[in-house]
Design brief:
globular; 12 strands; 41% helix; 292 residues
């Protein structure tokens, strides 16, 4: 059930430059919020800047960063964080999230690499998250990320994730597709993983499609339709944690807008299904307490 501390409500869509023209007639009835990578828009002016401003004036916008590189051996890019803060202020962005990964070492690597699942990395990463939160002046969310190898692993993925979130005292961006992809690639039970996530920290959810390289290798591309097992994980997340705002990601092979809205509609339907038993439970509890 929605609570007041969520940064947005309802169903969201990742806004990409290729969608700017086609999506200009969308309303808040179609999608309730949008998400952008701030690095793709900071300092952008001219026609594109004006178009983006039109979107930020009509829709709540969430920032989902690409290059914070929170697990990097390099120092935190303080100037980047400050520029994100200015961008958020300019466009009245209520929230910022990033990946629990790294993508730089004396230069950007242009890929999201796994942080070693170790106690040392927990302390190191949590301290850097706290530093970013101090600069921004607010809590941020870290996303459970997809990964294809686990160098130097001393802890399970879920134990590492929970330890970082707890020590950093930050929020969670819960990506259900990443859970599914990792469960296939690394041989664990996705339901058990999801059940152990700290739902009280989850501020919103990502759902996306992926590429089937092989039966035992899935690649997180955000370039295909969402498949049934991932929809089922979304249902389970709502069952566990309530109807959390959920965003559809699509970065490649972006179909015409009506096809994207069809999947947006599936998210809305899942939220409505999940909300019904919650509403019934609340009504029953009120009756038991003699309330109307």
């Amino acid at each position: 059930m929605y609570t007041e501390d969520f940064p947005v409500k309802g169903v969201g869509l990742g806004l990409r430059r290729s969608m700017l023209e086609e999506a200009q007639d969308l309303s808040l009835e179609d999608v309730q919020f949008m998400e952008v990578a701030p690095e793709n828009w900071i300092g952008v002016g001219g026609r594109l800047g004006r178009q983006f401003k039109q979107y930020s004036e009509r829709f709540p916008i969430i920032c989902h960063g690409l290059s914070l590189s929170i697990g990097s051996p390099d120092p935190v890019d303080v100037e980047l964080v400050k520029s994100i803060r200015r961008f958020m202020d300019e466009h009245k962005v209520p929230y910022y999230s990033e990946h629990l990964t790294y993508c730089s070492e004396q230069g950007h690597l242009y890929d999201l690499l796994p942080i070693p699942f170790t106690e040392e990395a927990v302390h190191y990463t949590a301290a850097r998250i706290r530093q970013v939160q101090d600069i921004l002046g607010e809590r941020i969310a870290m996303e459970n990320a997809s990964y294809y190898c686990a160098p130097g692993q001393q802890m399970s993925e879920i134990d590492f994730l929970n330890a970082v979130l707890s020590e950093a005292d930050c929020d969670l961006l819960l990506d259900v597709n990443n859970i599914y992809v990792n469960s296939i690639n690394h041989g664990y039970d996705p339901i058990e993983f999801l059940d152990r996530m700290p739902g009280e920290r989850a501020k919103y959810i990502h759902i996306a499609g992926h590429y089937d390289e092989a039966d035992d290798l899935k690649v997180d591309t955000h370039g295909a339709d969402v498949i049934d097992p991932v929809w089922q994980l979304l249902d389970r997340a709502y069952q566990n944690f309530g109807v959390i705002p959920t965003l559809l990601e699509r970065d490649f092979n972006i179909p015409p807008l009506p096809e994207l809205l069809r999947e947006v509609g599936q998210i809305k339907a899942a939220q409505q299904r999940a909300a019904q038993p919650l509403a019934a439970t609340t009504s029953t509890e009120r009756q038991q307490h003699g309330l109307k």
